[in-house]
Specification:
The chain is mainly beta and 436 residues long. It is built from five helices and 30 strands.
Length: 436
């Protein structure tokens, strides 16, 4: 946490003026807090013949506001509030949640009333830096805007009540836009669309208008233009359920720009296992493509729930851009449900999704929590698949895995969900990459 104190003196002849005091927003700020103080009532008693009189009239009234680097009003609270806070997702009422862009911001000073001797005003700024934490959310969902049964706000509340920190809304060929849901308290909503074409489905997340014109195309070239435009506008592009029986991705995905492959769509089944194998082949070929999963929620059904599966992301904050960055970089794992196990892979300073230089002494620290009795932790590299550990009771695990050759290390946790049936993945992590 860093801070800055600014003291100013306002002479009486500036009464009635507005002006700004510049300050520098540090890089990577998650939260800023601003408080200010000044002598509003002097309370100087007047000595009378039989005692004293203490006046209550305000001698100084100084108003507060905040201006962003592009000159916009973030908020203005008059003299009502002595403190305010701001982050990208939350703010003191009267201030609009805003990305804390590094650069020159301005404290708005309104010198409404100034005493004849002038007034000293002290501003205290505090900046809390971003810090990675684990956030849980579903990134493939449908509402009544396509073929789901819940409205956007019903879906958001459903996700909140299931313990989710974020939700991406991805209706078929219908973009959910930021302005429709930006300020639902307690959950980060990410705009998106599931581009739904006879030859494949893809998620475009994080931008209000990923492509121009209608969704449809009749040629691969036009489809490519949609993807390239979305990429250019900063959308996170996910190839959805690439091996689905009914809606597989039939274009040649190697021609298309994309960030993530949805290897786990809804309940674990054969088509998902084929997608996992497809992803493993991409990784073995040297591609660094992040895997994702999403419930493809339309309505509650047997084995189909919101957040089944969902993403656990190690994001720098709960702002959409930081969540999308963590997904794009693969600082994440997929788990079968919001209450599923958690996992982290660390080698030196690097974590899952990042690249560490490999040598013969390279090790990966694997930590897992939320394990259930008989859960099996499987380590997968380009060269081998090893069942490393079977839990003898519920609990957590911390182990060190020596990495014998360069490539990557990823983990799957298998669980027996229904006694008598084979175990299924409860978690699939992204790899930590180990380059020679
Ligand atoms: Zn789909
Ligand atoms: Zn879908």
């Amino acid at each position: 946490m860093t801070g800055k104190q600014i003291e100013i003196y306002i002479p009486p002849d500036r009464q009635g003026e507005y002006f700004t005091i510049p300050f520098e927003m540090p890089e990577n700020t998650a939260l800023m807090e601003l408080s200010y103080s000044y002598l509003s009532i002097s309370n100087q008693p007047t000595t009378l013949e039989f005692g004293e009189f203490i006046p209550e009239n305000r001698e100084n009234i100084i108003d507060l506001g905040l201006i962003s680097p592009d000159g916009q009003q973030v908020g203005a609270s008059g003299s009502d509030k002595q403190t305010m806070f701001l982050s990208e997702t939350r703010a003191t009422p009267g201030y609009t949640p805003t990305a804390l862009t590094p650069g020159e911001w301005g404290i708005l000073v309104g010198a409404y009333l100034v005493a004849p001797q002038g007034v000293k005003v002290t501003y205290q700024l505090t900046f809390t830096p971003k810090e990675r934490s684990l956030l849980i959310g579903d990134i493939h969902t449908h509402t009544t805007a396509s073929d789901g049964v819940l409205s956007l706000s019903q879906l958001a509340n459903h996700a909140k009540s299931h313990g989710m920190d974020f939700l991406a809304v991805t209706d078929h060929n219908q973009v959910s836009r930021t302005e429709t849901f930006r300020h639902i308290e307690g959950i980060t909503l990410i705009p998106g669309v599931e581009w739904t074409h006879y030859e494949g489905h893809a998620g475009f997340l994080g931008v209000d208008q990923p492509y121009d014109g209608p969704f449809f195309t009749n040629t691969e070239e036009e489809a490519l233009t949609k993807f390239s435009t979305a990429r250019g506008r900063g959308a996170l592009i996910i190839i959805d359920h690439p091996c689905d029986e009914a809606c597989s991705f039939q274009f040649d995905m190697h021609d298309f720009p994309f960030d993530c492959l949805e290897i786990w769509n809804g309940p674990m089944r054969e088509s998902n296992l084929r997608a996992v194998a497809l992803w493993q082949n991409l990784l073995v070929s040297g591609r660094k493509i992040a895997c994702v999963g999403g419930s493809d929620y339309h309505r509650d059904r047997l084995f189909q729930i919101l957040g089944g599966p969902c993403m656990g992301v190690y994001a720098l904050s709960n702002a959409p851009a930081d969540i999308l960055d963590a997904l794009r970089n693969g600082n994440s794992f997929i788990r079968f449900a919001p209450e599923g196990p958690s996992l982290q892979l660390i080698s030196g300073e690097k974590m899952m999704g990042e690249t560490q230089k490999w040598d013969e002494d390279t090790q990966v620290q694997i930590t897992a929590s939320g394990l259930k009795t008989n859960d099996v932790l499987r380590v997968i590299t380009p060269h081998e698949t090893t069942d490393l550990f079977q839990a003898s009771s519920d609990g957590a695990l911390a182990v060190t895995y020596p990495v014998k050759s360069p490539g990557f290390v990823r983990v799957e946790i298998y669980r027996t969900f229904i006694p008598g049936l084979p175990p299924l993945p409860a978690l699939i992590s992204n790899p930590i990459y180990l380059d020679s």
